[in-house]
């Protein structure tokens, strides 16, 4: 449905521009936006490669394992059923660790594995358990220690200090994660 809406908006806008004699402005706008989009994407690719390399170094140096060990005791308390199962908890820890380090592409397979493991432990198949709902909240509002995507976008857009977002990102994502967990635990008691 959204495709039809976008098509209608673009088609109507272009037709309106042509009928009002602004065809040249439309052509120039399309070419300029395509060029700026291409420049943005090329800039993002280079910076994303850099951050992925940094994250790989963190993984190889054992930093992700240290972070996982710190998270394990906290997650055992938060997840009632999955916290008792090593496979499920391991997948949850790896997903959240990858998200914390800004590796959302690497976190996706662990997120899928986490849900599969929690579904294995779930008594009601096809219905999300409280642990699954909590995991989705934590995954969506995960604390970002290194917001590499935002840093990359800011750098490719010409920011003078693209990493200035790190402290605000840590603060805002920490608050979001804490509020999400609290609300999830409150709602869990009623449903």
Automatic annotation (TrEMBL):
Alphabetical list of InterPro entries matching this protein: Gate_dom
According to its UniProt entry, this protein's organism is: Inconstantimicrobium porci
Q: Where are the transmembrane segments?
A: 6-25, 37-58, 88-112, 133-153, 165-187
Q: Which UniProt keywords apply?
A: Membrane, Transmembrane, Transmembrane helix
- The protein's name: Spore maturation protein
Q: Which intervals hold domain Nucleoside transporter/FeoB GTPase Gate?
A: 42-155
Taxonomically, which superkingdom? Bacteria
């Amino acid at each position: 449905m959204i495709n039809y809406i976008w098509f209608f908006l673009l088609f109507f806008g272009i037709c309106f521009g042509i009928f009002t004699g602004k065809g040249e402005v439309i052509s120039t706008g399309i070419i300029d936006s395509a060029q700026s989009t291409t420049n943005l994407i090329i800039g993002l690719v280079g910076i994303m490669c850099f951050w992925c390399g940094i994250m790989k170094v963190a993984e190889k140096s054992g930093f992700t394992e240290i972070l996982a060990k710190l998270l394990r005791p906290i997650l055992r308390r938060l997840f009632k059923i999955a916290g008792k199962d090593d496979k499920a908890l391991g997948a949850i820890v790896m997903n959240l660790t990858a998200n914390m380090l800004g590796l959302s592409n690497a976190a996706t397979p662990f997120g899928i594995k986490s849900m599969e493991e929690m579904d294995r432990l779930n008594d009601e198949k096809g219905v999300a358990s409280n642990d699954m709902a909590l995991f989705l909240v934590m995954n969506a509002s995960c604390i970002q220690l290194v917001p590499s995507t935002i840093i990359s976008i800011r750098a490719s857009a010409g920011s003078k200090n693209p990493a200035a977002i790190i402290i605000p990102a840590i603060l805002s994502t920490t608050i979001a994660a804490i509020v999400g967990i609290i609300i999830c635990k409150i709602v869990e008691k009623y449903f």
